[in-house]
Design brief:
The structure is a homodimer.
Chain A lengths: L1 E9 L3 E8 L4 E8 L6 H16 L6 E9 L3 E2 L4 E3 L9 E2 L1 H5 L7 E4 L1 H12 L8 E6 L3 E7 L2 E2 L36 H14 L16 H9 L3 H25 L3 E5 L7 H14 L9 E4 L7 H17 L1
Parallel strand pairs in A: 1-4, 4-8, 9-12, 12-13
Antiparallel strand pairs in A: 1-2, 2-3, 5-6, 6-7, 9-10, 10-11
Helix pairs in contact in A: 3-8, 4-6, 5-6, 6-7
Chain lengths: 321, 321
């Protein structure tokens, strides 16, 4: 009988779902808005109706073996979503408990970057790597840490928030309420903030002076950098220097074999990863120099979040065997 | 039959050994100089002759079940000591292989801070804690990281070098060759360097102006701080601020339940830990505030390194059961 895991990726704007089989094929993919629902109960009611409707289209016989969920500030231990600043539901939401009113299945929830890290292990480039860190670069910087083949959840279930390492005393205001967090510098909005900071000092003859702050985004900076725009290139260099230093600190802490990069900004490829590697080696303790690889994720971008969420269940099944 | 593990703690100056039983009692403790031996082979020959002589005094019948070794830059995976800057033996020393010429026993080697971390789990305050970090404060800053009840060795066996996190761009020269490493600020020599840096700006009416750099040490600063000396207190405050920030970064990475502190400088107790806690909370991401404890090690200082080394074997035996 064919087995599927329901993978759910809850983002601030869209929720993506799919029925993922053993080989990482996603069936009946769906994307629906996350934010029209005032309460989490209404949201879940709608989500379940979408899933039940889709499930009818699966070829019989089949079995759903579990539900994996990636969500911002997802707490693996408790199945809760806690203090997520880009979701409407405030406080501590008992998400898996609410889902269990509809499904009698194993349900596992964690944050989206942890899910992506596990996706890399089950379906991507980390199949044979037991110690690595996944970095997701989008509107924020997420991370999922794998040690001895297992995700690190930590004491309270929230480990792997490298985006909130402090990189600058009294630095930029972060969504978490602190100042100077890594993700205020290294993320799509972060590189834009860096560009405007650099521009305020020296425009370097860049054409980017013709964009408003509102019009500017990481894509524009990427295209300009590809065409040799000095201000755009300098923005990548500054971003890479800060990221490289944090990677060097992560290396002395965890000694991973590799960092994987996933998400919007990481599509900049060598424009970001080459200078990041240079600065990482610059800051690295001699014992660790030239040992750690920076690799693009092998998950296809389109579906990686849903794949990663489903990997939460497949990995658990593998571990129990 | 009574079982013992031989615990060996290799320091830059002294090597300490003992026969540790199941309850953490150390029998036939010994301390001998590490540095008179030009080659590691001579050193081991002497070490083994000390151990064999001592073993004769053990009450029969008994069994030696293994040898645990804590050493600077000890590589758990390979049993080697690599590029240790405070030992005479240069390059990569195949230490456990050399020991195996004398003993047909399980021999496990790791760095001293990892050994101390495991000692805390087997004999100290971490018996019921599965996620924590041990910080050893002496002439350097060592750390041992425990995740899900297991030490983190990382891909190459050297994980847990928090002393070499970069805390200051172009900062103080470190023994590792880099600049700005945490241990150049937070360690016994580190607080002394901070004191002289602060003194060069403002002596604050401190009596410590009467000490040469050569005469000054962490003990003197501690005693002065206890008596309210403003320069000494300021040195602790500066040290605590830097340490607190790195602990906050470690929390977002690993989400430990506690940090344990061990070693010379940690004897300063609340003088160091109270301001460190304050700064750690200051820098912590809101999600993690007021969740993580700072605790003094419950290992007795006298013998903790040997205890920790023996715990490497006892823990392995427990895990295999």
């Amino acid at each position: 009988m064919k087995e599927y895991v329901i993978g759910i990726d809850i983002g601030g704007t869209f929720t993506k779902t799919g029925f993922v089989d053993r080989n990482g094929e996603i069936h009946l993919e769906n994307s629906s808005p996350t934010d029209p629902y005032e309460t989490v109960e209404e949201y879940i009611e709608n989500l379940v109706s979408i899933l039940k409707k889709a499930e009818k289209k699966l070829e019989k016989p089949y079995q759903i073996v579990g539900i994996g969920i990636g969500a911002p500030n997802g707490n693996y231990h408790k199945g809760t979503i806690e203090l997520a600043s880009n979701l409407k539901w405030k406080g501590i939401v008992p998400f898996t408990d609410l889902m269990k009113e509809y499904y009698e299945l194993p349900i596992i929830l964690t944050n989206d970057a942890n899910a992506a890290a596990l996706g890399e292990k089950v379906y991507g480039g980390a199949k044979n790597i037991n110690n690595y860190v996944m970095i997701t670069l989008g509107t924020g910087l997420g991370s999922g840490i794998v040690v001895n083949g297992n995700l690190v959840y930590g004491h309270d279930g929230f480990a792997g928030e490298l985006g909130h390492v402090n990189v600058e005393e009294n630095g930029r205001l972060c969504g978490c309420g602190n100042h100077g967090c890594l993700e205020t510098y290294v993320s799509a909005p972060g590189i834009k903030r860096t560009l405007f900071e650099l521009m305020s000092n020296d425009t370097m003859g860049s054409d980017l002076v013709n964009y408003t702050y509102e019009e500017m985004d990481a894509e524009v900076i990427y295209e300009a950098a590809k065409n040799g725009d000095p201000l755009a290139l300098s923005s990548f260099e500054h971003t890479a220097k800060i990221l490289g230093r944090v990677l060097a600190d992560t290396i002395v802490t965890l000694s991973p074999k590799a960092f994987f990069f996933f998400g919007g900004l990481s599509k900049s490829g060598d424009l970001l990863l080459k200078p990041t590697k240079k600065w990482m080696e610059h800051y690295s303790m001699p014992l660790f120099k030239n040992k750690v690889e920076l690799l693009p994720s092998e998950l296809k971008n389109r579906n990686a979040a849903v794949l990663g969420a489903s990997a939460l269940i497949w990995n658990e099944i593998d571990t129990l065997k």
